[in-house]
Amino acid sequence: MSISEKKKIELEKQRRQQILSVALGLFYKNGYKNTSMVDIAKAANISKGLIYHYFKNKAELLFSYQDKLDECLNEINEFGSAKEAIYEFGRRFLLREVDETGYIPPLQVYVIVFVKGEMDDPDYMDRNPLYQDFGQNYFGPLFEKGIEAGEFKQGDPKLYGDIYWHYLLGNVLETLDARRSSKKTQDLKKVISMF
Which pTM value belongs to this model? Predict the structure, then answer.
């Protein structure tokens, strides 16, 4: 591969990341439904046509954040402790504020789109994390690992996973209200200690 090809690939990767970052900020601020591809192109300072070079539509752009979710899940599955892994996912997922660096929690923004019912395209509903038994499928195995290691009480790991996921979703709804109020999230470690 020539240097110019490498440079082209790197520039395309950077441009794609730029579009994703801008879109994330707009989805967080305005909501998915209230953000158009034109809005994203303008905020990214690129042409509308160029954005379609990278993403065929807004839904495809949104589902690019599934990669972030998958990366997080793969990373926490490598933790030695199931309890630490479950805590870390919850911590990342429930970040409330955009921090001083401008970081916006992509996992939360991605799921908020579904919680608010903004993604209603039938072609993509099979990828909606609210309809995939997400808690059972992703947290269930972690709870099972933790039960076997003595980190959690004996019980149904899939049920524990489902309960934990619904707790996180409830906090996301509270997070939406928290943008308007100062209500604090319960201590995540206390919640996890109930299992």
Answer: 0.78
